[in-house]
C-alpha cells in the first residue's frame, strides 16, 4: 500500500493469488524487506513501513518516491544447502537466506 494515499498497488489477499515465495539475502526483494523480514519467525505477521530509500527510490518505478506499507505473513521458510553440506563434508548450519512463502509480496523466516 502507498502511505501517501492508501492505494493498494499489490495484494495476494485481495486478488486471490497464491502466496508469494521469495529468497531473502540474494537481492531478490527491496532492501526494506531484506532488513524487516530477516530473523522473523514462521507464523509471524509483520508490518513493514518502507521509506523510498529502502524501497524503489532512485529507480524509474512509479513507486520511487513512495513510502510503502506491507503486511507479510511468514508461512514457511527453507534454508539453502551448500554443495559441501550436500556431499556430507560440513555439519555447519546453512547461511541465513531462507526461501520464504508469505502474503503480499512476502519475505523471511526462522533461523533455526
Descriptive report:
- With 112 residues, the chain is mostly beta strands.
- It has a single domain (20-102), classed as Chitinase A, domain 3.
- The protein is built from two helices and four strands.
- The protein has helices spanning 31-37, 83-86, and strands at residues 20-23, 45-50, 68-78, 99-102.
- Strands 1-4-3-2 form a four-stranded antiparallel β-sheet.
- The longest helix has 7 residues, at 31-37.
- The radius of gyration is 15 Å and the shape is globular.
Q: Any key phrases for this structure?
A:
single chain, 112 residues, mainly beta, Chitinase A, domain 3, four-stranded antiparallel sheet, 2 helices, 4 strands, 22% strand, globular, disordered C terminus
Short structural summary:
The chain has 112 residues and is mostly beta strands. The protein has helices spanning 31-37, 83-86, and strands spanning 20-23, 45-50, 68-78, 99-102. It starts with 19 loop residues before the first strand and ends in a 10-residue tail after the last strand.
Q: Unreliable stretches, pLDDT < 50, 5 or more residues? A: 94-112
Instruction: Identify the overall geometry.
Output: globular
Query: Which fold name fills CATH's third level, the topology?
Result: Chitinase A, domain 3
- Percent of residues in β-strands: 15-25%
Amino acid at each position: 500500500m502507498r502511505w501517501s494515499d492508501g492505494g493498494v498497488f499489490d495484494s495476494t489477499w485481495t486478488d486471490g493469488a497464491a502466496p508469494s515465495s521469495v529468497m531473502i539475502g540474494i537481492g531478490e526483494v527491496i532492501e526494506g524487506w531484506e532488513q524487516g523480514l530477516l530473523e522473523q519467525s514462521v507464523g509471524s505477521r509483520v508490518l513493514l513501513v518502507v521509506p523510498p530509500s529502502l524501497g524503489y527510490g532512485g529507480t524509474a518505478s512509479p513507486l520511487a518516491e513512495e513510502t510503502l506499507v506491507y503486511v507479510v505473513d511468514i508461512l514457511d521458510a527453507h534454508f539453502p544447502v551448500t554443495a559441501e553440506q550436500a556431499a556430507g563434508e560440513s555439519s555447519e548450519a546453512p547461511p541465513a537466506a531462507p526461501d520464504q512463502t508469505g502474503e503480499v509480496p512476502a519475505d523471511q523466516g526462522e533461523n533455526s
